[in-house]
Amino acid sequence: MRIATATLAAVAALMAAGSALAAAQVTDVDYIKASRCRGIAISAAADTADLDAWLKAASKSRSMSVMDKAAVAEDAGRREAKTTNAERKARLATELSGPCQAFKG
Q1: More confidently predicted of 44 and 14
Q2: Phi-psi region of 46 (alpha: psi -120 to 50; beta: other; left: phi over 0)
Q3: Quick one: signal sequence residues (predicted)?
Q4: Residues 6+ apart with CB under 8 A from 33
Q5: What is the pLDDT of residues 43-77, one digit of tens each?
Q6: DSSP-derived secondary structure letter, 82
Q7: What three-state secondary structure class fits 71?
Q8: Hey, where are the domains in the chain?
């Protein structure tokens, strides 16, 4: 019984290390793209809780220059989402329901 408990504990530790490693592999470009998605989502009055959690977890290893670029991308996403152009609104809705979903998990 002790062997089974030790084995389960070891597997759990390896899984936790694997997920931490996966979070560390988020690129700066992905972080900036996710920030743009957040800006679009805020302007569209969409729920941003999952996206906020993803950004918070991914922000721990970012430099200030990347954080600044992400803030600029978020502002640009907000401004672009305030458009009255129907084609642009459709493109942004597609972006929000497509590529931006990758940053919610």
Answers
A1: 44
A2: beta
A3: 1-22
A4: 73, 99, 103
A5: 888 888 999 999 999 998 899 999 999 999 999 99
A6: T
A7: helix
A8: 27-103
d(CA 65, CA 61): 12
pLDDT score for 19: 42
Hey, what are 33's tokens? Answer: 């793209």
Structure tokens at 68: 């600044």
Q: What is the largest CA-CA distance in the chain?
A: 66
Map residue 5 onto helix, strand or coil. Answer: helix
Q: In whole angstroms, what is the distance from residue 65 CA to residue 28 CA?
A: 10
Residue with tokens 């070891």: 10
Q: What is the pLDDT of residue 2?
A: 54
